[in-house]
């Protein structure tokens, strides 16, 4: 088992678990990620992604990558799984301890929210191995940190430490290792307190190309304006305020 799944009602915790390989992402892990996505597409819940033994994921499995062919590259083995993670209906929280390199970094970039420990090292050393970061870094990283910083990181192959990642906005907060998962659950608790449909629609609007705004918000808001949950929550708010 390379991916441990724990279901907790309104959320799922998925732990990358190949400690002997520093949680490197191999084909078995990719297959498990697809199974996880099928679960969350069918029953939308917040996802917390983390790694075992003080490492998020030290990259893709180099032994497998070395033997992959041009046809394998065109299949987008990792990219397809990470796109599916990105497109999940409910938010994805990456709780990152230690190394998140190469494919591990690209999996983290696919999350909606990233938090980390002070031991974080995150980056994309692919060009040093004779390949490119082709599982999302070249289009997601500029959206997260801006084109100039993404270009520097991808073209040099260097890794950021925790403080620099926080300064760049690549992660939103830092936590001691023994508090990281609790912090992720705290974020999931805040999400769970809100209306799930409004949360899903907010994520959908955030992921919609700029050219489709503001029409997408208006359509999503129109649906929410007719929902019983909107009426219930607003009524409760007004009743609390009147006390």
- Major β-sheet strand ordering: 1-2-3-4-6-9
> What is the CA-CA span between the terminal residues?
53 Å
User: What profile does the largest beta sheet have?
Assistant: 6 strands, mixed
Task: Return residue spans where pLDDT drops below 50 for at least 5 consecutive residues.
Answer: none
Described by the principal axes of the CA atoms, the overall outline is globular
Q: In percent terms, what proportion of residues is strand? A: 15-25%
Rg result: 19 Å
Overall mean pLDDT stands at 96
Class based on secondary structure composition and strand pairing: alpha/beta
* Number of DSSP-assigned strands: 9
Quaternary: single chain
The share of residues in helices is 40-55%
SSE sequence, one letter per element: EEHEHHHEEHEEHHEHEHHHH
Q: Provide a count of the helices.
A: 12
How would you describe this structure to a colleague?
It is built from twelve helices and nine strands. The protein has 243 residues and is α/β, with parallel strands linked by helices. The protein has a six-stranded mixed sheet, sandwiched between helices. It has a three-stranded mixed sheet with strand order 5-7-8. The longest helix has 16 residues, at 27-42. The radius of gyration is 19 Å and the shape is globular.
Can you summarize this structure?
The protein has 12 helices and 9 strands.
